[in-house]
Specification:
This protein has about 150 residues and is mostly helical. The chain contains seven helices and no strands. Helix 5 packs parallel to helix 6. The protein is elongated and about 60 Å long. This is Acid phosphatase/vanadium-dependent haloperoxidase related protein. Keywords: Membrane, Oxidoreductase, Peroxidase, Transmembrane, Transmembrane helix. It comes from Ethanoligenens harbinense (strain DSM 18485 / JCM 12961 / CGMCC 1.5033 / YUAN-3). One of its GO terms (molecular function) is peroxidase activity.
């Protein structure tokens, strides 16, 4: 039970986790407003506005900065982790989503020409636009500052 207490009283961890939760809630609400339907995949899914990954690592980064200082090894780790995650969200995962879009279109064209393709469509919303990442960064910073 003591471990659970430490978990919930860890400012850095809670800032990161709450940033992710808030981002997923915001993402779900935005999808609900735009599409006029509830999409449960948005609650845990990747991609969309704001970037939950960016929010989480930026809250972690700010939390570590505030608790440990810029000269600490913890800060260096948080800084590098944030950079890698943000780069991945905008670069690698976004490119994978664009490739999925192209492959899904090819499957659609192939099926229209009479060939049967027995695979489910690939998930296209994997990465983030720069604006989605920026929104996630700002959310993570705000949550960490508001909590600390």
């Amino acid at each position: 039970m003591l471990v659970l207490s430490h978990f919930f009283h860890n400012y850095i961890l809670m800032a990161a986790v709450l940033s992710w939760i808030f981002a997923q809630i915001i993402k779900t609400v935005i999808t609900l407003i735009i599409t006029k339907r509830f999409d449960p995949e948005r609650i845990l899914g990747a991609g969309g506005m704001p970037s939950a990954h960016s929010a989480m690592v930026c809250a972690l980064f700010v939390g570590v900065l505030r608790r440990c200082g810029a000269a600490s090894p913890e800060f260096a780790l948080a800084f590098v982790l944030a950079g890698v995650v943000i780069y991945d969200a905008m670069g690698v995962r976004r490119a994978a989503g664009e490739q999925a879009r192209v492959l899904n279109k090819l499957v659609e064209i192939t099926e229209k020409n009479g060939s049967e393709v027995t695979r489910k469509g690939l998930k296209e919303s994997l990465g983030h636009t720069p604006m989605e990442v920026l929104a996630g960064i700002m959310l993570g910073i705000l949550v960490a500052l508001a909590m600390g």
